[in-house]
Design brief:
642 residues, alpha+beta, six-stranded mixed beta sheet, 21 helices, disordered N terminus, DNA-binding
Length: 642
DNA sequence: GCAAGGTC
């Protein structure tokens, strides 16, 4: 019974202490049969790199049933035990959720039944080869270590793997590796501190999946079938989907568009004073800023012109700093990518994912913008001293020590995004995103830029005006952070000037401006603020609403609603529901968080949410003519009677 | 022909 001897050495599932406590009592590891361990990561790249790190490049590659998911074999010690390790992977979720085959047909049932009909979790055909590999390997294994990403979905994927493996090998001992970057220290630490997978976190994902499916399918079929029938010339072949993320995404664009349409400009007047001195034209701003009463503004202007001599009241200089950026989280990466690299959020995240799996950067999906105390930043900066582009700058940082500003957000899982390895052979978008991440990292651990701001206050016959100048003294982080601009604004020295005659005193009319149309970066900020989608999906939801013609792009990067998008928003608004507002999704998100933390029971949350949407659905079905009417208005077409 | 979330 060699196997059982080996097993006796193995501790029961669970605590770290048990390993420490039992180890001295066991047989010497060298005399023990190696334990067979199956390790499963979330994707092939991760499996390959984790295996390479643990085995110090000595792993052997084998084929599995899936040609994309290889097996990597090596021997190593885990908790003082000799282990024969097999490392393989899934490709994201192994299972999909759907209604039974009969109800997948659109006309098979009333859409309202989709709130109650049974759903099933099934391995889709394209994932079957991966499942077969797992089953074959699990039969041979004694331990299963889950190496999926350490986030909510990763925990759920972990349980999909566990369920498949346990079904063929009930005696498997299960462990969870916790890590947030694929580097030797991080992976080694994970192996030395194996824990248990978190069932609650996984259950929260099950709740989300089921709700998204039921609600999405019910409303999508309902509104698509209704409107195709009512507007056959314009919508006959249109898919009019509803989703808990896509609708609010569209809603933000509609809301901004309407705010602009309904904007009523207001006229104002302001006095501007110019002083031309030594080729510099200094503009002084009115301390009253602007007045909405023309007569009043006119009379102040007259007062100035009565005695148009400016008395310099003071000319003061004080230090001014421009703050270095905060440590980078995912949303910041997406926004910087859109604004500074002109890449869509989708492209930025694809590149970042690739950089992560190759070990160049830490996990790119993080909500944390404060570096944890345990993370030693010095070696990370040292690595970058070898790069031609910013090596000297990195060297400079080491002299006064890395010095990040603390942000305010932490997901307690992953540190801010930072480089972990020197760039090598990168090209295209990966190279550009890597550069952005390194420059941002070095900037955020360096020093604020320092300048000197000069303010000059003047008085013209009782009216006060002010002008500002700026001299940049030390560029500091700006040396490396080419994405921020801060430039000198010249202003002459007014200390010696007591009075002067302005070259111009204008009364300038103006009017208040509407807000701007949203850009993709603005939209991502709003989605993030309201908890719509995840870091990984913001970009995809934007793509979806574009492809449904719910929104479109104008002037290269301005988002505007399409007629059908605005009509759907208006239709549901007329019923008094906030389908296109973020509140519904935000409520669910709060419940899911509570499930993860153990506050609420997953089945209770699921029942409540289904009931809530079912009653909304019933009202929508009763008042569906309100949607017809809104569509008729925007499509300029009379709804058909049958 | 539906969702959102993984990943390719």
């Amino acid at each position: 019974m060699l196997i059982s001897l080996g097993r006796r050495v193995v501790t029961p599932p669970g605590s770290r202490q048990s390993f420490v406590g039992l180890r001295p009592l066991t047989v010497h590891p060298a005399t023990t049969m190696p334990i067979k361990v199956l390790n499963v990561a979330e994707k092939n790249d991760a499996a390959k790199n984790i295996a390479a790190l643990i085995s110090h490049g000595q792993s052997l590659r084998r084929e599995g049933f899936s040609k994309f998911n290889k097996l990597y074999e090596f021997r190593c010690q885990v908790q003082g035990q000799n282990c024969d390790m097999t490392m393989t992977s899934v490709s994201g979720h192994l299972m999909g959720l759907d209604f039974g085959p009969h109800y997948r047909k659109w006309y098979s049932c009333q859409p309202s039944q989709l709130f109650d009909l049974p759903v099933e979790k099934k391995c889709p055909d394209n994932m079957l080869p991966i499942k077969r590999t797992l089953e074959r390997e699990a039969k041979k294994a004694q331990w299963l270590i889950i190496w999926t990403d350490c986030d909510r979905e990763g925990e759920n994927i972990g349980f999909e793997v566990i369920d498949v493996c346990r079904a063929v090998k009930p005696s498997l001992k299960i462990f969870r590796a916790t890590f947030s970057e694929i580097t030797l220290p991080s992976v080694t630490r994970a192996l030395e501190n194996l824990g248990q997978p978190n069932l609650r976190v996984s259950q929260a994902v099950d709740v989300r999946q089921e709700l998204d499916l039921r609600i999405g399918a019910a409303f999508t079929r309902f509104q698509t079938m209704r409107l195709q029938k009512k507007f056959p010339t314009k919508l006959a072949n249109k898919l009019l989907s509803y989703g808990s993320c896509q609708f609010p995404t569209m809603g933000f664009v509609v809301e901004r568009y309407k705010a602009i349409e309904n904007f009523v400009p207001e006229a104002f007047w302001k006095i501007r004073v110019f002083h031309k001195i030594d080729d510099v034209n200094v503009e002084f701003h009115w301390r009253r800023l602007r007045l909405f009463d023309e007569t009043a503004a006119q009379s102040y202007h007259d007062v100035c012109l009565e005695n148009p001599i400016a008395k310099v009241e003071d000319c003061k200089s004080k230090p001014k700093s421009k703050w270095r950026p905060l440590p980078m989280d995912t949303v910041e990466l997406e926004k910087l990518g859109a604004r500074k690299l002109k890449l869509s959020a989708k492209v930025v995240m694809q590149a970042a994912e690739k950089l992560y799996t190759q070990g160049f950067i830490s996990y790119p999906r993080t909500e944390t913008n404060i570096f944890p105390k345990e993370l030693n930043l010095r070696p990370l900066v040292e690595i970058q001293t070898r790069d031609q582009r910013w090596g000297d700058f990195a060297g400079g940082i080491l002299q006064h020590g890395p010095n990040p500003r603390p942000g305010k957000k932490s997901d307690q899982a992953h540190p801010p995004i930072h480089p972990t390895k020197l760039a090598a052979n990168l090209s295209g978008n990966e190279a550009r995103v890597y550069e952005l991440i390194v420059r941002h990292f070095l900037a955020c651990v360096s020093q604020d830029a320092l300048g000197k701001e000069t303010t000059v206050n003047i008085d013209i016959n009782g009216e006060k005006f002010i002008a500002h100048g700026l001299t940049v003294v030390q560029r500091n982080y700006l040396e490396i952070y080419i994405y921020d601009k801060w430039s000198d604004k010249e202003i002459p020295d007014y200390v010696q000037i007591h009075t002067f005659e302005p070259s111009q005193i204008d009364l300038t009319p103006g009017h208040t401006q509407p807000p701007n149309l949203l850009t993709e970066a603005d939209l991502i900020s709003l989605m993030d603020k309201h908890g719509i989608g995840t870091d990984a999906t913001h970009a995809e939801h934007i793509e979806t609403v574009k492809s449904r013609d719910y929104i479109g792009v104008q002037d290269r990067d301005k988002l505007v609603p399409g007629v059908i998008g605005i009509a759907l928003c208006d239709g549901y608004d007329a019923m008094g529901f906030e389908m296109s507002k973020p509140n519904l999704r935000a409520g669910l998100e709060a419940d899911l968080k509570s499930v993860c933390e153990g506050g609420r029971q997953p089945d209770v949350v699921l029942r409540e949410q289904i009931a809530k949407y079912k009653s909304l659905f019933q009202i929508a079905a009763q008042q569906v003519t309100k949607i017809d009417e809104a569509c008729a208005r925007y499509l300029n077409e009379v709804p058909q009677n049958q």
